Amino acid sequence: MAGLWQHLCSLQLIPALALFQFLCLLQPTSSVGGRNTGAELGFKLVKGNFSRMFLRVGYHKIAEIPSGAFNISIRETKKSRNYLALQTSSGKHIINGHWVIDRPGIYNAVGTQLTYQRPNEVSSRAGESITVPGPLTDDLHVYLIYQQPSPSVHFEYVLPLTNTKTTPEPSSLSTLTPYVTSDEMQVVVGMATNDIVKEKPSPNMVPGKANVNPQPVYTWTKRGYTECSSTCGKGRRQLLWECIDKALHVSVPADLCDPTLEPSNQQEDCHIQQCPAYWDVGEWSECSKKCGPGSQHRQVICRQVTHVHSNGTETSVTAAPELCGSADKPVTKSSCQLKICSQWEIRSEWSECSVPCGVGQRSRQVVCVSNQDEVEPDEECNMNLKPDRLQNCDMGACARSWFTSQWNQKCSAECGQGNRTRTTVCLMNHVTDLPLDSCNGERPKEVTTCNSGPCQNRLEWYAGPWSQCSAECGNGTQTRNLACVLQNKGHMEVVVPMKCSTRPKPITAQPCVLKPCGVQWYVTEWSMCSRSCNGGYRVREVRCLTDNVAPSEQCDPTLIPESREECNTQPCGADIKPACSDQYHNCMLVVQARLCVYAYYTSVCCASCRRVQRTYPNSFQNNIWR
Length: 626
Hints:
Elements: H1 2-11, H2 18-25, E1 40-51, E2 58-65, E3 70-76, E4 83-88, E5 93-95, E6 105-109, E7 112-117, E8 129-132, E9 140-146, E10 152-163, E11 177-180, E12 187-190, E13 218-225, E14 234-245, E15 250-252, E16 267-271, E17 277-281, E18 294-297, E19 300-308, E20 314-318, H3 321-324, E21 333-336, E22 343-346, E23 359-363, E24 366-369, E25 375-376, E26 390-394, E27 401-404, E28 417-421, E29 424-428, E30 432-434, E31 447-451, E32 458-463, E33 475-479, E34 482-488, E35 491-495, E36 509-513, E37 520-523, E38 536-539, E39 542-545, E40 564-567, H4 587-592, H5 599-604, H6 606-615
Antiparallel strand pairs: 1-10, 2-9, 3-8, 3-10, 4-5, 4-9, 6-7, 7-8, 11-12, 13-14, 14-15, 14-16, 17-19, 18-21, 19-20, 22-24, 23-26, 24-25, 27-29, 28-31, 29-30, 32-34, 33-36, 34-35, 37-39, 38-40
């Protein structure tokens, strides 16, 4: 029978069927005594279907395809949301492993190429498929990634059979069962090993050629290539090589060709049409205003894809705007409004004027409210648009009259001559205080003398007038001087303060606040001058503070005090005396009243008091003032 096969193959009596051509390539290579002495090869077609109604979501093994199998086809019989997956016997993932769905294409594994197809999810009704020409160099495990009920998968492959037993000579050639796939029309023969028997003499054999067994020659040839990896721009495609019989020009298993001669160039560049340009739109910027209508911007650039990689990433470059179409360019500026701005609201009418006559003030309540009608800090509203909260009011001319209180019954001196006082005010209708110079006529006296009897060596503290407040606004201090006075029979003499140490001492300083300052500039004391003469400089620290001494940035920068100034500009060695002059024309009366012992009168009548001090120095030695 082997000779018959050789004869049929050499004659190629049935050239239309690749079945017989493939069998010719796999005929026995040696025989002894009419029996096959080595392993003789046959084929078995394996088919299977997998279907379940419900499974748990995840991977499920549905088949194991052994090593050596070829012409493998795995496909879904209907479209679904499930996926096919492949794995080697060692657990190495080939397609759709680790919960990552791969792109359709060609994959190299287990000694062959695997073509993974996923039809268009919208237009196609076919499911996924994997085809493998084979043969496999390792077992292949087929999995289903279950996501949708009622999966259905069909798989089939051809498996070569080997048999080492001595086979008796059958009487006739067994029946050949071909299997033809509907897609690629490949013919696969299923034949048992014992179907190949010893050749019998036949009258139809050609003499001299019946035992000819020509040595076939196989070579690698390119049979095509896969789809380009990129639908536009520059991409890559896989070259497909196959092993063929040079004499018969038919495809044979790859292991018949010399693997060392297989071409190494497996990929090549492919150029499809140029990718269309597109507008690359950036993120919107923040709104230009925190409240009310504002604007925001974004960057819009015309870009063009030059290459789409196999992992789905793209490479693009900046292109001319004309390629993207200027008419379709997205807007780069848009209006925005984070919230409605808070507004000033007048919540009360003007109050009554603070005076019944003359010029006074009236007030009203002005608050900053949100669009939810909630009161917010004034900073949330525009301070430049704040309505007036205070307003002057003129109530017309006032009727003016002097009114006096009763004289104080207690004399200011416990002995000797003192004073009694009363209060004088200029009033209208007995309720409104007016400036003291607003009434007509002479102002009534507010001080009168009184005598509490003779004094014998009586010591008493006398206080000078309070000074002006040290601060025009905010917290300040008022001070006054004290003098220890000895009274003896109407005679008053200033003595050293130590002598009045047993008497209750009046205070010499008290706090004062004229008005709140708000935000203003504060300075420290000047430092010492850097030089004592010939010009130096001194410095101080300047800060902008609120009433509660918190730092602020709302002070008027044009009113900032100097933080450095020149000092001691006089030439070194010169004796420059400070200026000393009288500020009043009646300073001689101050000298006669012996008031130069007070610091206030010493300052306003400097020249007169200094002349007396130079003339009578001894009379001032015991007069120590604080």
